[in-house]
């Protein structure tokens, strides 16, 4: 029997990724499918925002909740867009607008080092005093010209030197294994399997 977990996101890409990565032992529903409104992200770090989102989803559904807060941190921009990655170009911005702003901000800057960061927070209930927290980091560089058709967000501009390609050029299975989210999920799987062993 699978554990039903609410994913504190309405992002279909993330729902598909988590379902693919965590397999049959855990069954996910997007919070939007359960009538949960998004929490206001008032934290100053990925962990703080993930915790806010997980507690909100659990509170409204009475289910265990998993929240992911992730984004792109660019060294030369002081870590920006960071926690504002999804709304870098404004609250209604789409991926293309965010990417366009990123490339504008980096015009004339030689240091293109960056990393994707992911914080995953799992709460057993809304007031869980000891949430499971896992983090993953994926280093790379920002390139001006978009490459690849896969992924979402900043993937077409995130270049991985050791692979010689951008994240959006990777097959989804390879990206899931290597990415910041994949690294955080690998830790989460171990934690969840030890806490919820197969019967």
Second-tier CATH architecture: Alpha-Beta Complex
Supply Rg.
17 Å
Strand order of the largest sheet: 2-1-3-4-5-6-7
Under CATH at level 1, the class stands as: Alpha Beta
Could you tell me how far the N terminus lies from the C terminus, measured between alpha carbons in angstroms?
8 Å
Total E-strand runs: 7
Would you tell me which CATH topology applies? Answer: Maf protein
EC number: 3.6.1.66
Binding site for substrate: 9-14, 70, 152-155, 175, 180-181
Organism: Spongiibacter thalassae
Cofactor: Mg(2+)
Q: What do you see in this structure?
A:
With 199 residues, the chain is α/β, with parallel strands linked by helices. The radius of gyration is 17 Å and the shape is globular. Helix 4 packs across helix 5. The protein has one domain: Alpha-Beta Complex (Maf protein), CATH 3.90.950. The chain is 31% helix and 24% strand. The protein has helices at 12-22, 46-61, 95-105, 172-178, 180-195; strands spanning 3-7, 26-30, 65-74, 113-123, 132-142, 158-160, 165-166. Strands 2-1-3-4-5-6-7 form a 7-stranded mixed β-sheet. It is built from 5 helices and 7 strands.
């Amino acid at each position: 029997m699978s554990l039903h977990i609410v994913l504190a996101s309405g992002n279909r890409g993330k729902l598909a990724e988590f379902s693919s990565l965590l397999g049959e032992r855990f069954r996910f529903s997007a919070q939007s499918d359960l009538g949960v409104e998004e929490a206001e992200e008032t934290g100053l770090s990925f962990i703080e925002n993930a915790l806010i989102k997980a507690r909100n989803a659990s509170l409204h559904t009475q289910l265990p909740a998993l929240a992911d807060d992730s984004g792109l941190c660019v060294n030369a921009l002081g870590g920006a867009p960071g926690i504002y990655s999804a709304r870098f170009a404004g609250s209604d911005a789409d991926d293309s607008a965010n990417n366009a702003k990123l490339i504008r901000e980096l015009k004339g800057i030689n240091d293109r080092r960056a990393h994707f960061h992911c914080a995953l927070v799992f709460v057993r209930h809304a007031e869980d005093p000891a949430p499971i927290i896992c983090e993953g980091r994926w280093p790379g560089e920002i390139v001006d010209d978009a490459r690849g058709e896969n992924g979402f967000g900043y993937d077409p501009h995130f270049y991985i030197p050791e692979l010689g390609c951008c994240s959006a050029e990777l097959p989804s299975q390879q990206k899931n294994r290597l990415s910041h989210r994949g690294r955080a999920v690998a830790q989460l799987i171990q934690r969840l399997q030890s806490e919820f062993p197969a019967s």
